[in-house]
Amino acid sequence: MSLIARNRRSVPRAVMDSIFSPAYDSSSFGSVGTISMASANRLKGFIGYVEGGEGTEGTITPISTSRHARFIGEVVAEGITRLQTTGNSRLSIRTIVENNTLNALTGAVVRAGASVEAVMPANGDYSIVYIGYNTPEREISTLMRNGDAPISSRISSYRNDSEELASVAMDLVRNMNDYSIRIMDGNARSFTESERRDVNALLSTFGYNESESIAAVSNAQNIIGLAYNGDQIVGISITERRMLALSNGQHINIAELTDGTVAESANGRNLYSGILFNVFNHIARNYPDLGLVYAESNIGSQALLKSALGWQNRQVGGVLYSHTRINNRPKDFLVTYLTRELMAESVSRLNRSAVDSLRE
Fold first, then answer.
1. Which among 128, 148, 209, 271 counts the fewest CB atoms within 10 Å?
2. Per-residue pLDDT, 54
């Protein structure tokens, strides 16, 4: 039992009930202003401080005082209690905190019985914080059983890998002869019947059904990167854009790299890296206020992490333990991110390397 659970709580019941929603949310980002049921037996959401008897649907009040931090601690303790009554086994909460309040928030979360699992910079004043808790009944992952040493070693080995950069750059040039990349953004989207089949075949890897696949690529908030071999779609990436509207009038624009894959026929060509290279260029040209691109990546995928930590040079925010299930097994996810400046550096470095490979 958490320390908070043993003491009198100050958050009104009406506020708690407005935060915890009985609805199911299927998006990767999760609901904003509420904590909802999600896949893999999770309660999940993005919340801020709530004053009074209403939730913060659509807007976020940043955690900027010790009082706000204690509020989040009470919400976490309530969430742990509700795991038992809802039959779920993981609580996953994100919030946005002023950097000078991060220590107070961490203390409140620990006293509630949970952990701060990851932290990412949202801009100069704020950070996005992941809070996690797994019940004793939730099946534990390999990292939870054996510790973080293996992933720490792998992260170090992937950093500044000049061979990886050269390989991706060479394939970026070579793939121009065999593949074309298309970026879809905004409302004007249409697909032929064969394109629908291709998209569904690729996204079925992540458990999408046909209607979910088309909904994902048709959502105007999603940037879709598509790789074509002739008329066939052989690669895809989905980037979910979000604007966090803060109660103080500020806006923080972020994007999450969610699902992406290539067809088996395109394996071994660094095609997914080529798609992301084009997506990053698109974001840089069209979204000057978008300051953070991040991802939650399966630690078990060596190729994915090698790309993320290699040529992309993503920074590590933390680890989400037993966050979800893949092939019916618990999986840990590494939170990685690029600020706008780091993304520009990564794109520029790969572009220079590609130009150099043309000269050789």
1. 209
2. 42
